[in-house]
TrEMBL record:
Source organism superkingdom: Eukaryota
Record organism: Pocillopora meandrina
Coiled coil: none
One of the GO BP terms on file: base-excision repair
Annotated protein name in UniProt: Xylose isomerase-like TIM barrel domain-containing protein
GO molecular function term, any single one: zinc ion binding
Basic and acidic residues bias locations: 34-54, 65-76
Entry similarity comment: Belongs to the AP endonuclease 2 family.
Record-linked HAMAP family: Nfo
Length: 400
């Protein structure tokens, strides 16, 4: 009988032991499951907050009534019109939604992938005196996370070929300084006019565009910014826009991957690109849309009549940019205050906070996630040796 009791006790202990193990395993599974759920909730919460911020920013920009918007949508299509005599009609363009801090480079079928960049990349246009690699050193010295530069002398059509040694020195300097190709925005020479009515000027401009895109490729760069062009008062807006698009298409055919970035202008004289509809007109005629983008110059926009000095005006401009051009095409920014008044049509840059745009406008830009992950380049007057360093610090302080 004692033996039976001992056997029964041992059996009870074994059952209890198995139950404990099962409970421990179950407890671990529950803990893991809870952690997974917490992680999912956290990710959902982050995504929700991001969407909420984005939604609020867009709601503020809805300056036009739904009735007017419906009216424009019914008109549909894009019309390039005379700047002097005809009104603008918003095109019927499908909006592309992107998460704040995610830089969409068009679409998956357009060759380039999404670049998840979550910070502001502020820099300045720096000198290439002494060699292209010196631009990297200058950018580091001013505390820049991005920079712009000319690829050669911008005062003449002809330029000596880029040497292999110079290209390697530049790429090595960028690698050591951790400058991504997406943070560098080269600027085309000012002599170029890819919409020129003069055949000789047009031919030279197209040859220069090809040459500079090839230089970008040899330097490992993926963006190239230039002024679209001008009618020179001798051809129609439509003809000039067509010539600019044709110039881009020809350059794309002779190069591989560099994105041609059109800069908005100030509506000075006969220049093209002061109105977003003109930029859209060029983009519509570019065959490879994965290789075209826009650089938004704050001074030019203000001089062209976009009231970015006020919060409401800034949101209206951004809403129009998204509707007419598309945020997916925003590839860079030129950060400049303006010496001239709103709508003056004068391309006169001023230092940050010293002009008619004012500090608060740049504070809005610095806190807007739509500008994350793209090069934002200062082109303000060089009034002192450390002016860019001061302005970069000033801009980053605004983002907090």
């Amino acid at each position: 009988m004692r033996r039976s009791v001992r056997l029964a006790a041992r059996a009870i202990e074994e059952v209890a032991s198995q139950n404990n193990k099962a409970l421990q395993t179950s407890g671990q599974a529950i803990t893991i499951n809870l952690k997974e759920k917490e992680g999912n909730y956290s990710r959902k919460e982050t995504s929700s907050k991001s969407e909420t911020r984005k939604s609020k920013a867009r709601k503020r920009a809805r300056a036009k009534s739904s009735t007017e918007q419906d009216h424009n949508e019914k008109k549909g299509g894009y019309l390039i019109k005379s700047v002097a005599t005809e009104e603008k009609v918003k095109p019927e363009i499908k909006r592309v939604k992107t998460e704040p801090g995610v830089h969409a480079t068009i679409k998956s079928e357009d060759k380039l992938n999404f670049q998840p960049l979550h910070e502001k990349l502020i820099g300045a246009h720096v000198s290439i005196s002494g060699g292209l690699h010196n631009a990297v050193s200058e950018a580091l010295a001013i505390g820049a996370k991005a920079f712009g530069m000319f690829l050669r002398s911008q005062r003449q059509w002809m330029s000596k070929p880029l040497q292999d040694k110079d290209a390697e020195l530049f790429k090595e300097a960028c690698s050591k300084a951790n400058f991504s190709p997406h943070s560098i925005l080269p600027h085309g020479i000012y002599l170029m006019n890819c919409g020129s009515p003069d055949e000789e000027t047009l031919s030279k401009s197209r040859a220069t565009l090809v040459d500079e895109l090839k230089r970008c490729e040899r330097l490992g760069l993926c963006l190239y910014n230039f002024h679209p062009g001008s009618t020179c008062g001798k051809i129609t807006l439509e003809e000039s826009v067509g010539r600019i698009a044709e110039s881009i298409n020809q350059a794309h055919a002779e190069t591989k991957y560099v994105v041609t970035v059109l800069e908005n202008m100030s509506c000075q004289g006969n220049t093209i690109g002061g109105k977003f509809e003109e930029l859209r007109g060029i983009i519509d005629q570019v065959q490879d849309k994965s290789r075209v983008g826009v650089c938004l110059d704050t001074c030019h926009a203000f001089a062209a009549g976009y009231d970015i000095a006020s919060e409401r005006g800034f949101e209206i401009m951004m809403d129009e940019f998204e509707t007419i051009v598309g945020l997916k095409y925003l590839r860079g920014v030129h950060l400049n205050d303006s010496k001239g008044d709103l709508g003056c049509h004068l391309d006169r840059h001023e230092n940050i906070g010293k002009g008619k745009i004012g500090v608060e406008a740049f504070r809005r830009v610095m806190r807007d996630p739509r500008f994350n992950g793209i090069p934002m380049i200062l082109e303000t007057p060089y009034v002192s040796e450390n002016i860019y360093q001061k302005e970069i610090k000033q801009l980053y302080a605004m983002s907090t």
